[in-house]
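Before relying on records like the one below, remember that each one covers exactly one chain. Contacts with other chains, cofactors or solvent are not represented anywhere in the record.
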Amino acid sequence: MRGRCRVALRAMLAAHGRPELTEVAELLASELVGNALEYSDGVVTLRVHWREETLRLAVFDDSAEPPVYEAVDPAESERGRGMHLVRELAEDWGYYLVGEEILGVSGKLVWCDIGTETSTGTDAGTGATRRW
């Protein structure tokens, strides 16, 4: 599934004339999808949204466990690098827990924003910023 997500993102960004976002978008989508596949048992869905000059990647899975960010040394650790990369490369990121009463399914939606010029070193992740 990770490969299909990367191919779809590459095609979409090329069609929108935004190839400069391809490398970061592919990496972050791959990390979010990989985490969802590893920690959930059901369907995993990647959604892509444009808003002004921001690309939002959002991955839904059926696990109600929040994503865990652990301060790790990416060069030395085999695990825990995914959310580290999301935190470092995304302009903003966060998650929402989803209850059955809203959509008929429960789980979480983990999202990250990539701007025209991505910033690094953000300390986001509250899910309380920029509601769409």
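Helices lie at 2-15, 22-39, 81-89, 100-103.
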